[in-house]
Specification:
The protein has one domain: Aminopeptidase, CATH 3.40.630.30. 30% of the residues lie in helices and 31% in strands. The protein is built from five helices and seven strands; from the N terminus they run βααβββαβαββα. A seven-stranded mixed β-sheet has the order 1-2-3-4-5-7-6, with helices on both faces. It is globular and about 40 Å long.
Amino acid sequence: MSAPRLHPYEDRWQPGIAAVIKSVYDEYALTWDPDDYHRDLYSVQETYIDTGGFFSVLVASDEQVIGTVSALDRGETAEIERLYLLNHHRGRGYGRLMTEHFLKWARSKGHGKAIAWSDKRFTDAHEMYKRLGFSVVGDRVLDDPDESPEWGFELSLQSLDSTR
């Protein structure tokens, strides 16, 4: 069996995108809200790609979507969005692979800074961000159905470039 591969968004991946993210929401007993908070997952082209960002999927050899990663262009800042991985694929470096894909994109677009907001329950993701050089810069309560608490992470991309 070959390793999963990243693919840019195509309409055919949309059901798998929603399924992966809903699976994580179910795992953490979070509210799924396709009509409001998750509506971006049903308008990926317009929400991410047409606005200068990207959306990619991690696809297993059987063509199943097992992970997602996207980004929004916020001017000087690139914001990672929708970084999710099916539970049974965690711990294999795929989250890091998808995050490094985001960082490569951000650098290629000339962004000076990368930011990530992550639910405080996703502790494995927080450790990965820290290993990649991100620092915790704040916290907030998200305006979602669960009022989820999140940590904010930031990474200077100039400091990354100067060490390469």
